Amino acid sequence: MEPSLRELIHISRTLGSNQHLVWKGGGNISIKTDDGGMFIKASGSELGRMTAVKGWRKVDIAEVIKLLNRLARSKTTPAKISEGLMNCCCDGLRSSSMPSIETFFHALLGRCVVHLHPVYLLPYLCSRGGQHLLRAVLAEHYDFQWIAFRGLGVVTAGQIQHLLLKRRTDKTSTAVLMLSNHGLIVSCNTARQAIQMVGHIIRLCRKNLPGLKPACLPQRKQLPKTSAKIAECLSKESASMIVKPVPENRMRTSNGVLPERRWFEGTITPEEITYLAGGIVWIDKPDIKVIHKAITRHRKKTGQIPMAFYVDKQGLIIAADKTQMSVMKTVFGFYLQIRGNAIMMEGLKPLPARYLTPESMI
């Protein structure tokens, strides 16, 4: 096994096993080689389950950058990106697994690049006051670059390429990039250094988060009845969905006050689209007509069947396939925590709708 691949597997399993840093198929890590290549996580695979035979691809860096420049000059489609990235592979594997969609910005940065979606960092990235609060938290240790959300993949790479051209980021030295409404990028020389930096940044962020207390939910006992009504409405949409109330009180707010509708407005990260079908649906009355209207409104807005609900004064309900229920409950809990903290940092900063387009998400 090549030393760089061994290094990639070690850091991927170390960081990928921590659900507070990344979950399911999210995040990506790369290690460059001396022959102009780069090992990177395969698209859709889980960092924590990478092995010597699966979960990664090796690409030719020069070919990736050529592809990025070609795509930047023409109309981009998922098919063009998939075909192009597969053609950049130089590992000799007979695999249909595509390199991560974020391969482009990895190719532009240092030898070891880590991109994660940490639960304790996302409140800063998804709040109106997050940037200046984060600078205060990290000021003595890290001078990071803040990148406004404009999209994923090719779009993010273009933004980072611009920073490199303006010499605001140096690919040869240690760099920390904060992707607004998205996540963290650390670029450095070794996996060991990256693990230390990620750990340090997250500890500082967690230490400075506002305190949250369990919300008082006076009508919690009515949650099973409301869950049955939601199940009835969703049965016409998907017969395989199981609808269950979240039994423990996962709702945390400032001083335990009841959540407000504005706390659940908009989509705050691309991952919320993927894992929570576009966000959390607010139900203000446990009436079947009100529930049906809320589901219809969510479908028209996102094109997806809702999976996460907050019922005013009652609590949380989740709808998912049986095999995904446990994971969805965990992710739901994380996003409640992220939103609760972000609310206390001058308010939520939802993703601008103009960037939630198919062109921006590739």
Topology:
Blueprint: H1 3-16, E1 28-32, E2 37-41, E3 56-60, H2 61-72, H3 78-88, H4 103-108, E4 112-116, H5 122-125, H6 130-138, E5 145-147, H7 154-165, E6 175-179, E7 183-188, H8 191-207, E8 213-214, H9 223-234, E9 242-245, E10 252-253, H10 270-275, E11 280-283, H11 288-302, E12 308-311, E13 315-320, H12 325-343
Parallel strand pairs: 5-6, 11-12
Antiparallel strand pairs: 1-2, 1-4, 2-3, 4-7, 6-7, 8-10, 9-13, 12-13
Helix pairs in contact: 1-8, 2-3, 9-11
What does this structure look like?
- By secondary structure, the protein is of the alpha+beta class.
- The chain has 2 domains: 3-207, L-fuculose-1-phosphate Aldolase, CATH 3.40.225; 214-355, no CATH class.
- Helix content is 38%, strand content 15%.
- A 7-stranded mixed sheet has the order 3-2-1-4-7-6-5, sandwiched between helices. The chain has a 4-stranded mixed sheet with strand order 9-13-12-11, sandwiched between helices. The protein has a two-stranded antiparallel ribbon with strand order 8-10.
- Helix 2 (61-72) runs antiparallel to helix 3 (78-88).
- The longest helix has 19 residues, at 325-343.
- The mean pLDDT is 91.
The portion of residues forming beta strands comes to 15-25%
Cross-sheet strand order for the largest sheet: 3-2-1-4-7-6-5
CATH H-tier superfamily of the largest domain: Class II aldolase/adducin N-terminal domain
How many helix segments? 12
Compute the gyration radius: what is it? 21 Å
CATH class of the largest domain: Alpha Beta
H/E order of the elements? Answer: HEEEHHHEHHEHEEHEHEEHEHEEH
Q: How many domain modules?
A: 2
Round the mean pLDDT to the nearest integer and report it: 91
Q: Which word captures the global form?
A: globular
Q: Total number of β-strand segments?
A: 13
| CATH architecture term of the largest domain | 3-Layer(aba) Sandwich
Largest sheet: 7 strands, mixed
Helix and strand content put the structural class at alpha+beta
Low-confidence stretches: none
Please bin the fraction of helical residues: 25-40%
